[in-house]
């Protein structure tokens, strides 16, 4: 937060630029190319996600052995491990329908805006609306559950 | 080198744009992720930005939990947009060329101030409706193509592997059905 290293945000920015450049270069920022993959017309797309996963996987495996903590945050190097529950399947399926219909996912949508795709604002508006709808509903459900528990 | 004509023809049919632009693009996406991870220890995903940014305008508890990360996530997304623009100003504009980059023929190109920009032909209702489902699904499912697909798979997380298999399978089924119904593009 406020006591973070002055290079924290600049590094995130540079990382984002490389990330976005890669999404443009790979054409994953183009919904047509994603849809061509999902319809089996061009099977190249998995090289983007799995190529990136291999590169990051090497870093995730090596860094904890080299250093104890990240220089700009002091945080320990950890892998991205999330607990499994039914939400992973339900959310994954809903995301799958959306991705299959539109051909665009969040990171690629930001990069798509950068390559000039003004029309992608429709998808971004939809993503914010969807994220808001689930957040509103889950915030209310959680508040109600907490209230019900404390009333017992 | 593979010289068998049957194999070459099969490869040309399965990979009409080759694989180099996909592989190089993937390496760069991975490199961006690694840069951030090396400096900060954060395995950054793209979809949390949707909820963390909503915390600026909504006090719902679901969004407020991301207040601590909302500023840098905004910076990350600004970087991704600028990275896309940097690609447009170089390879997309033809200013830089490489045998590793296959331009392709999708969508429409247009020019602004000497930069070749690109826009999609996919219909707005598909983008909007699909976007709503992407917004709901990635947040309930704990990740998207970068959070689960790049960082989670890179972490050999079983949760992420199951998540990726789920959204990939459903997306293939959905796209096939939509195409079979005659919707194009």
From TrEMBL, chain A:
Keywords of the record: Membrane, Transmembrane, Transmembrane helix
Recorded superkingdom: Archaea
Keyword Membrane included in the entry's annotation: yes
InterPro entries: DUF6691
Transmembrane segments: 7-25, 45-63, 84-102, 108-132
Protein's name in the database: Uncharacterized protein
Species this protein is from: Halorubrum saccharovorum DSM 1137
UniProtKB/TrEMBL annotation, chain B:
Entry annotated with the keyword Phosphoprotein: no
Bilayer disposition of the protein: Multi-pass membrane protein
InterPro entries given in the database record: Sulf_transp_TsuA/YedE
Keywords: Cell inner membrane, Cell membrane, Membrane, Transmembrane, Transmembrane helix, Transport
Subcellular location: Cell inner membrane
Transmembrane residue ranges: 22-50, 71-91, 162-183
PANTHER family: INNER MEMBRANE PROTEIN YEDE, SULPHUR TRANSPORT DOMAIN-CONTAINING PROTEIN
Protein name: Sulphur transport domain-containing protein
Species in which this protein is naturally found: Halorubrum saccharovorum DSM 1137
């Amino acid at each position: 937060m406020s006591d973070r290293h002055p290079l924290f945000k600049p590094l995130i920015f540079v990382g984002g630029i490389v990330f976005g450049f890669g999404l443009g270069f790979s054409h994953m920022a183009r919904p047509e190319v994603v849809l061509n993959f999902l319809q089996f017309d061009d099977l190249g797309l998995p090289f983007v996600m799995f190529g990136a996963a291999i590169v990051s996987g090497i870093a995730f495996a090596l860094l904890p052995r080299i250093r104890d903590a990240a220089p700009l945050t002091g945080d320990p190097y950890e892998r991205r491990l999330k607990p499994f529950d039914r939400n992973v399947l339900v959310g994954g399926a809903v995301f799958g329908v959306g991705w299959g219909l539109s051909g665009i996912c969040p990171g690629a949508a930001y990069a798509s805006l950068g390559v000039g795709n003004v029309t992608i604002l429709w998808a971004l508006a939809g993503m914010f609306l969807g994220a808001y709808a689930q957040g509103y509903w889950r915030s209310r459900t959680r508040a109600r559950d907490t209230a019900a528990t404390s009333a017992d | 080198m593979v010289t068998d004509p049957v194999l070459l023809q099969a490869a040309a049919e399965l990979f009409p744009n080759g694989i180099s632009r996909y592989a190089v693009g993937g390496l760069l996406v991975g490199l961006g992720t690694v840069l951030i991870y090396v400096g900060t220890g954060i395995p950054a995903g793209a979809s949390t930005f949707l909820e963390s940014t909503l915390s600026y305008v909504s006090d719902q508890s679901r969004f407020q939990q991301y207040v601590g990360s909302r500023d840098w996530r905004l910076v990350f997304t600004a970087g991704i947009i600028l990275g896309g623009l940097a690609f447009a100003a170089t390879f997309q504009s033809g200013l830089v060329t490489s045998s590793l980059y296959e331009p392709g023929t999708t969508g429409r190109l247009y020019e602004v101030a000497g930069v070749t920009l690109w826009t999609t032909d996919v219909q707005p209702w598909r983008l909007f409706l699909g976007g709503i489902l992407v917004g709901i699904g990635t947040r309930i499912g704990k990740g998207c193509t970068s959070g689960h697909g790049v960082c989670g798979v890179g972490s050999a997380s079983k949760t992420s592997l199951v998540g990726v298999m789920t959204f990939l399978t459903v997306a293939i089924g959905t796209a096939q059905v939509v195409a079979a119904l005659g919707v194009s593009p």
